[in-house]
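Supplementary Note 3. Input sequence used for the single-chain structure prediction.
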Amino acid sequence: MHSFRKVTLALVTACALSSGVCQSAQSDIDAIERAYMNGQTQKLTALANHHQDYEQFLAQFRLSVAYSTHQQADKALEIVQGLITKLEAHTKKQPDDDEALTLLAYAYSYTISLDQTVDAAAYAQQSYAALTKAASLAPDNPRVHLVQGILQYHTPTAYGGSKEAAKKFLQDALENYNHDVNSGVYWGHGEAHIWLGLTYLDLGNQRHALEHFQSALALNPENGWAKYLVNINF
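The predicted structure, written as C-alpha cells, is reproduced below.
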C-alpha cells in the first residue's frame, strides 16, 4: 500500500478523535480544483508553492493545463517538464505510489500535445509503463481508469488506440468514482464524464454525449469546458 493511501487510512482513523482532520487533505485538493476550474493561474502558483508532495504535483499539473488554455504553451511546457522531473524522482523513491504514477503517466501524455519536437513514441511508452504499474497497484483507482481512457482516446488506431476501449475505461472510471469521494485525493470525476462524452460524440451517439456533459455540469456548474462543449455541439 503506497504512502498516500496510508495517509488516507490514518486520516479516516483520526476522524474518530478529531472532527475535520479527515477533510484536510481533500480540502487542499478541492482548492486546487476550484482554482483550476476558474483559470486562476496566480492562485494555482501560490498553491503549488505552499504545498508539498502530491498536492504540489497536482497543482503544478493543473497550472500547466491552465496556461495551455490561456494560449501560453511555452509556459505550460516549462511547468509540465519540471513536474515530470519531480514525479520521476518521487516515484523512484516511492515506487508503489499509484497516485503519483498515474499523474506521471498523464503528464507524459500531456507533454506530447504541447511539444511537437518531443519523441512522442518514447513518451507514450513511458506513459504506458507508469500507468500499467499504477493499475497493478490499484486496479480500482478511478484516476488510473480516467488516464487509460484518455490515452486510448488520443492514440491513433494504427498504434493500438480505440474509442471503444476508451469508452470502457472511462465507464470503469465513473463506476469507481462512486466509491472515491472520501479517498482524500478525489479529483477528475467531471473530466471522466467529459472524456466519455467526447468519446460518445466520436462514436456518433450525441444523446449519451450530452448526458455526460450535463453530468459534469451537475458535479460542478462552473465547469467551463463542459459548458463550452454543450454550447458548440447542441
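The chain has two domains: 23-132, 139-234. The two ends are 44 Å apart (CA to CA).
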